[in-house]
């Protein structure tokens, strides 16, 4: 059974009861509390099962589950999933192209996403690894106030990678 326990599904002998108006009726036997809830046309719903004794309330179970589901959906809708966006560069990138790429990096970090910067080396560029390191150092300095480095620059085959995360 998913959701809170109610009526005959409540396992404890005694429960602390709160009526439909929010009044604390004190501790009573579960069976007695179920009968009182039925008199009001409501169910006895366990709202705090880990308390000692468990706390139960006079509620309409269907309405209670519906409200809980609505609250969960709203929480899921308002949370932001963090994605990893990738920016690809070459070690001998021109200034204007670099500025354009950095504008996108700033946008992505501003939206709360992580950014993976990939430097691809081709041909003889591979023997000049310091060019790539200098470029990634420049990127690092340019985004220092809005992002932190999550994965420091490292070589993987013919490409150098670095991951930035928003501060």
UniProtKB/TrEMBL annotation:
One of its GO terms (biological process) is ribosome disassembly. HAMAP family: IF_3. Belongs to the IF-3 family. IF-3 binds to the 30S ribosomal subunit and shifts the equilibrium between 70S ribosomes and their 50S and 30S subunits in favor of the free subunits, thus enhancing the availability of 30S subunits on which protein synthesis initiation begins. One of its GO terms (cellular component) is membrane. This is Translation initiation factor IF-3. GO terms for molecular function: ribosome binding; translation initiation factor activity. It is found in: Cytoplasm. Residues 7-73 form the Translation initiation factor 3 N-terminal domain. Keywords: Cytoplasm, Initiation factor, Protein biosynthesis. Residues 83-167 form the Translation initiation factor 3 C-terminal domain. It holds the Pfam family IF3_N.
């Amino acid at each position: 059974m998913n959701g809170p326990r109610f009526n005959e599904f409540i396992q404890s002998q005694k429960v602390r009861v709160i009526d439909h108006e929010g009044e604390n009726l004190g501790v009573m036997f579960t069976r007695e509390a179920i009968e009182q809830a039925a008199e009001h046309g409501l169910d006895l719903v366990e709202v705090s099962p880990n308390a000692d004794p468990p706390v139960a309330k006079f509620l309409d179970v269907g309405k209670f589950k519906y409200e809980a589901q609505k609250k969960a959906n709203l929480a899921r809708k308002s949370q932001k999933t963090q994605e990893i966006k990738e920016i690809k560069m070459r070690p001998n990138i021109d200034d204007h192209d670099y500025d354009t790429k950095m504008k996108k990096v700033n946008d992505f970090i501003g939206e709360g996403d992580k950014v993976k910067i990939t430097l691809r080396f081709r041909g003889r560029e591979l023997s000049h690894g310091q060019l790539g390191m200098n470029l990634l150092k420049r990127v690092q300095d340019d985004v220092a106030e809005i992002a932190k480095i999550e994965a420091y620059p490292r070589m993987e085959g013919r490409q150098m990678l670095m991951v930035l995360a928003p501060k």
